[in-house]
Amino acid sequence: MKKSLMNRRDFIRNSAVAGAATALRPKIHSATGPVAIASRNGLGAVARAVEEINAGADALDAVITGVNLVEEDPNDRTVGYGGLPNADGVVELDSAVMHGPTGRAGAVASLQGIKYPSKVARLVLQRTDHVLLVAKGAQDFARMHGFSIENLLTGEAREIWVRWRETLSNRDDYLPPHGPDDVDLGQAMKRSYEHWGTIHCSAIDLQGNISSVTTTSGLAFKIPGRVGDSPIIGAGLYCDNEVGAAGSTGRGEANLENCSSFLIVERMRMGDSPQDACLYACERIAQNTHLARLQNQAGEPAFNVSFYALNKAGEVAGARIRGAAQMSVADKNGARHIDMAYLYA
To answer: Please, are residues 309 and 245 in contact by the beta-carbon 8 Å criterion?
Structure first.
């Protein structure tokens, strides 16, 4: 039977047990002036975003410049160049941006051959009357605006994909390196490289305006054409210039089914702190996870989703469904990692 979340919610919110809940509820950080937040892999991104803001950049341009560092990094297996490919060995990228002052959004999905999908998403916002372009249409639009088509599959990512193909099943003809006594040539390694990964970044600029970006290569070895939450407004990110912004990383399907980033911003509109709003979204996903294949033995989600949020006052926080983790923050005190709250240990 699935474990009830009511006691845990009461535990998290009850001030009488605040001391016992310290591990679940890290200190809330706030800052005046420019502030940027990101997932843990965005430490360089938030530092660059604040640097750009201090030089006069709009928050949207600043966060895009920040995540470009990760999009072009071949050592990050979850974003842009070097990201792990789909099941056919092709890197497919998703990205979305949202601009607080205008309320506009732009996004691309299943985009192949373009190293900086966040820049293309911004062009969708700026140069079309649409919000989302996909696949070949997105690539043609990028090429029309001067982007070059590149092979984004690095040698290391290709080797990981080949290893996945060779160990996917012991019933096909692809074989990994093996010896004469090896028996199981597939199942032990079947899920070794399957993972989610993304970078989200939101910021407040010198004018107090808020903007956000999320960019990803998505689920490793996904079915070609699979689109997760990252390019979907309200799921992978959401921004309201009068309230705040939120974004996510983790199991995109769960986030899509709960519109979590929109939910977080709306909870902040109702008065929740960024941390409480992120925990609320984690609870919502847990409550709506009914399939046994997605639950552990305790009836809890067997996957993870992480959320990152800031409000108009500059308060920042993050929370995830399971386990301790950190997120990236930059402000007048520099760039650093801070602890996130979590729903389950």
So the answer is: yes
